[in-house]
Write the structure tokens for this entry.
Amino acid sequence: MRAVTYQCAKEPDEIPLESGKSSAAVLNAFNILMDGEKVNIKQKTTCHNRKDELYNDVVKLMTQKNLKMPKWSVSDEGEYVVQVITSALWCLTNHHLTINDAAKTSKDVIEVPKLFETFQGYNDFKRKKLKSQPLSQELCDSHGNASMNIVTRPVFHSDVHWQQFREDIDNLASCFAHYKMYLENRLKNQTLRQGQLNPPRTVGNDISVEFRAKTPYVYEKYKLFDEEIKNCDFLKPVLFDENVHLTTPFENRMQMKRFFDNLSLSVNVDLYRYCPGGGVSTIMFVAKVPENRSDNDAHIHPVRVIAQINDKLPEYHTRAMKREFRQKMNLIAKIQPGVLDFVYKELALDASVATNPEMQQRIKLISLGESGLVADLRELNTGRPSDKFDVFFEKLEEVVEDVTAADERRHGVSHLSHWISLGDLIGQAAEKCPEGTLVPSKSLVRLQFTPRNPYTHAALNFTSRLSVQYKIQRRQL
């Protein structure tokens, strides 16, 4: 609790009274407290990072909305309220588009409040050269609860401006809560699908058939597709390929939709649509059918067509199916995981994404007999460790020994005393080498130094051939 003591400068009898008021009313402590001076929350004078800029922008927004607090509570309660809102918006700054897109397709998601639409792009991962981190359930739950907690404070019930701002904070907290439930449901459904021992979508259950009658006139954009279908036999499926059946491929999915909505061909066809799910686009294929066919044939023909093309359509297997295959194969023989994945994809015709696409591509080249091409790929790698740069590295060690400085606080570790530019260091070492000596790249030379932090994952790539850290201490400058 806060205790406030008021000491009057004059005696009550000496204070001039207004008409109709007593001295007790003038000296009422509650009235003095309520009529006290209200001020705006102050901004940070110095911004050390982008989060401080976001903090100041939140303060600007609150100032524009005329949100004031008693002067004695600004330094603690005011800064706490702003800090909670800033942390929530900082977590949300790169995910506005993701949440708004999810709100368009799912009724369980609420869009980001309009008041906070401009608070985007503060935490730029590309500038930091880092991967963008997804919005997790834990972060949604944490910031949602914190936002809901601050709206229960008395200041949000003090005047009309704070009450209106409380509605915006309520919407922000609801946005976090609903998106958390959305992620939970998505994870639950995905775990259920991945645990099944059969593909989640199959050709027999997830395919649609639509009859399209012939048209008297074929437009120019359908002529290539119409020519191939017209020359095919009845009930022979023809897969649509925009690179083959169009002079110009589709620019977007809207053009593809309109192309098949207004399909005009010179023969009667059945249009088949198959969607494997996920981000894979719908696969279209057609089959020419005879005129004046009976209703019984209209039900039998699609079964015959699908039986012909079933092996050509992609099928996406679950993790449980792949895990069961690996367990059985490990009981028979010990095979590398990359080879097991390749064997499974070739035998089961699995179209799901490989764990290591580059390794799968190399194994596929070897299976086709292109072993020489795989060897050439290694020859093209100019930075591979070998003995071709030994002469250069010997001269480089001599140059580095002349420009190192000992560390007075750590034994056995030394640093460069100058040579901020790695290119200049390579150039001086190359001058001492015989003519025709191969010179490695900057990235390979940097890997020869001792890593600054040997416990990071990137330290596994360093060879530590030079027991010197590539950095200059501030005291040496």
